[in-house]
Amino acid sequence: MKKQLFSIVIGVAAVVMLLSACKKDYYQDTGLAKGQYDGTIMQYLEARSDYFTKLVKVIKLAKLEDVLSKEQVTFFAPNDMSIDSTIHETNAFLYQSGKDTIKTLEQVPAAVWREMLGKYIFRGKYKLNDFPQVDWAFFSTYPGVYMKSYDDVIMHIGVVYHDEGSAKYVGYRQLFLSYVPTPQQTGIFMSSAVASVNIEPTNGVVHALATATHDFGFSVFDFYNRCLFYGYTGK
User: Fold this and answer.
1) pTM of structure
2) How confident is the model at residue 199 (pLDDT cuts 50, 70, 90)?
3) Count of C-beta atoms within a 10 Å radius of residue 75
4) How does DSSP assign the chain, residue by residue?
5) Which of 40, 45, 71, 235 is the most exposed place for a label (fewest CB within 10 A)?
């Protein structure tokens, strides 16, 4: 079971991918990504079927396609692997409880998808340089920023300035999105690193989250409990 508390250590692949981010602006897990996209956020996601096929389906189930097509927003895009792993872990809980498991995305109530996706969308256009620095060891000095998401969920966003050799804060910059269940307790962050920053469709910005280091909705427990609350249809 994945730990829900924030850890600076992320998957080796994500770290390797980001080592040169101080020199190149846009990265995917598979290499350099084009910054500009001639289409909406929704069209961009649909075009990247290698990463976002299930995400697109979830967006449509949550009835958020108009938001990502017509409004000016910033979207921290979770990928299909995070959806798969969260469903897998949720099914483990369901199985252990003697309940039917989830076989299709449609079995999850639309309200659950909407509630989870609402944490990733922000009104307005925010690129990497628009977010302040965060240093988890010196949080009072470099606190990042708390922001309300599209659905008014309090989230935390910050850019980690990595060291390079003995020089502090001059290395590559790494964007993090965090869910903070209790913002007054700054030690509790459910965080995800961004793998690709500053992808610019015509109606905003996409920051693609790291492939293998993120639970969809930031908490499998939350996803599981919301499925039970809204009444999923397992088989």
Assistant:
1) 0.84
2) very high
3) 26
4) ----S--S---HHHHHHHTTTTT-S-EETTEE--SB-SS-HHHHHHH-HHHHHHHHHHHHHTT-TTHHHHS-EEEEE--HHHHHHHHHHHHHHHHHTTPPPP-SGGGS-HHHHHHHHTTTEEES---GGGSPBB-GGGTTTSB-EEEE-TT--EEEEEEEE--BTTBTT-S-EEEEEEE-SSTT-TT--EEEEEEEEEEB-TTEEEEEEPSSS--TTS-HHHHHHHHHHHT----
5) 235
